[in-house]
Amino acid sequence: MAGRNQQTMAKRAREQAVRERRERKRAKKAEAAAARAAAKAAPASDRDDSEAPVPPAAPERPPPSSS
After folding, report:
1. ∠23-29-34 over CA atoms, to 5°?
2. Between vectors from CA 39 to CA 34 and to CA 44, what angle results, nearest 5°?
């Protein structure tokens, strides 16, 4: 039976890390999609709009003078 060298083990460790990272990313995206779906399904009256960004008010300008 052939033994594994360190390079092979390092490669396996890198590949495992990549697989785990991809799985965490998929789980995070699925969680975000579920949150979006839940927010979309909620009636408008149940939504908490206090966290919605408020656009800044436009500065008041004097009317243009016609000379």
Report:
1. 125
2. 165
